[in-house]
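A quick aside before the break. I want you to see a complete sequence-to-structure record at least once, exactly as it would be stored in a machine-readable document. Don't worry about memorizing anything.
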Amino acid sequence: MAQRQVFTKEFKREAVRLLESSGRAGSEVARELGLRRNQLYKWQAEHRAKGPRAFPGRGPHLEALDELTRVQRELKRVTEERDILKKAVAFFANESR
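That is the input. The structure line, written in tokens, reads:
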């Protein structure tokens, strides 16, 4: 399954600006940007309705921080497991002597 594309608010604003200022058809602008035409028009409607408050999403930089936090937690868990295994190996090594 393809991963959902995430666009920054700057990209969305620039896409809407290009649509409104270029004088070209929405389908042409959308194709050039690698978007579906209806997505571009949806962004345009949101921008017109909300102005500067349009596109309030988290953005990819915060999603990257979430991923970093997840990886750090996993690293901590694996490190703790490694430490437990080291102790177990030492214990059984001493038992066998």
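Two observations worth writing down. The chain has a mean pLDDT of 87. DSSP finds four helices and no strands in the chain. We'll return to this after the break.
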